[in-house]
Design brief:
The chain is of the alpha/beta class. It has helices spanning about 10-25, 50-65, 75-90, 105-115, 155-160, 170-180, 205-210, 230-235, 255-260, 270-280, 300-315, 340-365; strands spanning about 5-10, 30-35, 40-45, 70-75, 95, 140-145, 165, 185-190, 200, 200-205, 220, 245-250, 285-295, 315-320, 370-375, 380-385, 390-395, 405-415, 425. Helices cover about 35% and strands about 20% of the residues. The strands form 5 sheets. Strands 2-1-3-4-5 form a 5-stranded parallel β-sheet, with helices on both faces. Strands 15-16-17-19-18 form a 5-stranded mixed barrel. The chain is globular and about 60 Å long.
């Protein structure tokens, strides 16, 4: 039995694809290992920033140094961006673009059976991944969309992921039913620009509505999404017990001037109005976001406008990016590029605001009840997982079971000065006996 290991960098779309590939290899008789010695390594790359490229190159070179005789497969967005460079470097045995990523099992299997394989001989297909039955997570990621038509001035994704493409709705429904049958309790919808999903008469709104009305004990989470003008009907869906009241909506800047130069398709005022409507429908709704600091031409004033906006909306987490110049984008040739040291300073300020916002949101949620999905239990019996509002929770108790739901009360906030490790210590309500505290 050959051993295969995966290294995944970047977004949830990559995570979905890695999970599906890992399951396919396991079904095909390979042993999937976390790291260490393996016969095959698959590196699923990201290229959204220069830092992403550097991390991918470091990972590839580190794996090759430690495993000189292993079969190395490099795939993902960095391949679509820098394929010829990677081929010329000769560090990987196979360099496979996103469009043929789903064929990696067949390519590797053919390599070991015949001594070689030609990736170019396989069809291009963005969605022909088999449902993952045994993944690295208790949540099951479901890819519903790929590509993007927005062409924001800073972004290289349309060049490496291609134009907007929606997965057939019936294929999505069948995939979800299969992973529910495999025992997954949380479905995470993911895609490059999910809000633009459309297949025939089915748009994103109707797709989500159909999914949450499927039978079974599971919940649905919407991952990173662009700020489309969500209808009242869509927002009402968050009253459904299966749809988690959390969205990561990509703001990028709170400055009207900066948004224009980014070629974003909304104004700060429209984004503010959308957030207000969401909170009206669900006051405890958890909003998180992305913000880019140091975009070309961003002044101290426009940066402060982003800071004020972030505080006003109260995002409980801000994924802060320092602007990264990407060759081929309009922003790369814009004047008034911000010095790296200034980007770092602004990044620290925005991260401090994110910590401040998270503490406020956690205090708002203190003493409330959440339905926790237990994701892991350590050797001391400490269970960890997330509530429906995407709040990290830890719990000690008896008869707790991984991949099960349990109703808990949020008690103490721990690690208050570390945003990445901040969580709630929870207790089990008295109405549940210890013998029956974890229920399917």
């Amino acid at each position: 039995m050959r051993k295969i290991a995966f290294k995944t960098l970047g977004c949830r779309v990559n995570l979905f694809e890695t999970d599906a590939l890992a399951s396919r290899f396991k079904a095909g008789g390979y042993e999937v290992v976390d790291s260490g010695e393996a016969d095959i390594f698959v590196v699923n790359t990201c290229t959204v920033t220069n830092t992403s490229d550097q991390k991918c190159r470091q990972a590839i070179h580190q794996i090759r140094r430690k495993n000189p005789n292993a079969l190395m497969v490099v795939t993902g967005c960095m391949v679509n961006h820098r394929k010829e460079e990677l081929i010329q470097e000769g560090i990987a045995d196979y360099v496979i673009d996103n469009e043929r990523k789903s064929a990696i099992f067949d390519i590797v299997d053919e390599h070991f059976k015949k001594g070689s394989s030609d990736p170019e001989g396989y069809d291009r297909d963005l969605f022909s991944y088999q449902p993952a039955f045994d993944t690295f997570h208790t949540r099951s990621l479901i890819k519903i969309h790929d590509g993007c038509n927005n062409f924001c001035s800073y972004c290289i994704i349309p060049m490496v992921r291609g134009r907007s493409t929606s997965r057939p709705a019936e294929d999505i429904y069948r995939n979800i039913l299969e992973v529910i049958d495999h025992g997954f309790k949380e479905i995470v919808l993911t895609g490059v620009n999910m809000g633009r999903y459309r297949e025939g008469e089915t748009n994103f709104e109707t797709l989500v509505e159909h999914i949450i009305n499927m039978e079974g004990d599971f919940r649905v989470r919407v991952s990173s999404i662009e700020p489309d003008q969500f209808s009242d009907r869509f927002l009402q869906l968050f009253q459904h017990e299966k749809l988690a009241p959390h969205m990561h909506i990509c703001l990028q800047s709170g400055s009207e001037d900066t948004l224009k130069r980014m070629h974003r398709f909304y104004t700060a005022a429209q984004f503010r109005e959308m957030c207000q409507r969401i909170k009206e429908f669900r006051p405890d709704f958890n909003l998180t976001t992305d913000i880019i600091v140091g975009f070309p031409g961003e002044t101290e004033q426009t940066f402060n406008e982003s800071c004020d906006f972030a505080r006003e909306i109260g995002f409980s987490h801000i994924h802060t990016f320092k602007y990264s110049k990407r060759t081929g984008t309009k922003a790369a040739s814009m004047p008034d590029q911000v010095p790296e040291i200034e980007k770092s300073r602004r990044s620290e300020i925005m991260r401090a605001i994110s910590l401040e916002n998270k503490l406020k949101y956690f205090h708002q949620m203190k003493d409330r009840t959440q339905r926790m999905l237990i994701e892991r239990i350590d050797s001391q019996g400490m269970a960890r997982g997330y509530g429906e509002n995407y709040i990290p929770i830890q719990l000690t108790g008896e008869n707790l079971h991984r991949n099960s739901f349990i109703e808990v009360n949020l008690k103490e906030i721990i690690n208050k000065n570390n945003e990445d490790k901040m969580a709630f210590e929870a207790s089990i309500p008295k109405k549940y006996s210890q013998k029956n505290c974890a229920y399917q």
